[in-house]
Amino acid sequence: MSMVSSNPEVLGGVLVFSQTRVPVRNLFDYLLAGDSVKDFLEDFPTVSFEQVRHVLQGAEVAFEKMAA
């Protein structure tokens, strides 16, 4: 199962956590505001920790490639 998805029929194609209507951007908004992953997961119970971990690991890899 994919951890994230994009479908024009769901929120106009915004990248969301799979099987939810929660935009991935919401996670980064929470973290930038100083909230924790725990806070995010409590507020969006349809998102799993595994999905969050996958997104954050992907972001880490992308940042490492940009820095190289």
Write structural notes for this entry.
By secondary structure, the protein is mainly alpha-helical. It has one domain (4-67): Winged helix-like DNA-binding domain superfamily/Winged helix DNA-binding domain (Arc Repressor Mutant, subunit A), CATH 1.10.10. Helix content is 51%, strand content 6%. The protein has helices spanning 24-32, 37-43, 49-67; strands at residues 4-5, 16-17. A two-stranded antiparallel ribbon has the order 1-2. The longest helix has 19 residues, at 49-67.
List keywords for this structure.
mainly alpha; 6% strand
Short description:
The protein has 68 residues and is mostly helical.
Unreliable stretches covering 5 or more consecutive residues: none
CATH arch. level architecture: Orthogonal Bundle
Q: Please tally the helical runs, counting DSSP H or I stretches of 4 or more residues.
A: 3
CATH topology: Arc Repressor Mutant, subunit A
- Report on the biggest sheet: 2 strands, antiparallel
The separation of the N and C termini measures: 30 Å
Q: How would you write the strand order of the largest sheet? A: 1-2
* Binned strand content: 5-15%
Q: Total number of β-strand segments? A: 2
Shape annotation: globular
Top-tier CATH class:
Mainly Alpha
Indicate the percent of residues in helices: 40-55%
Calculate Rg over CA atoms.
Answer: 12 Å
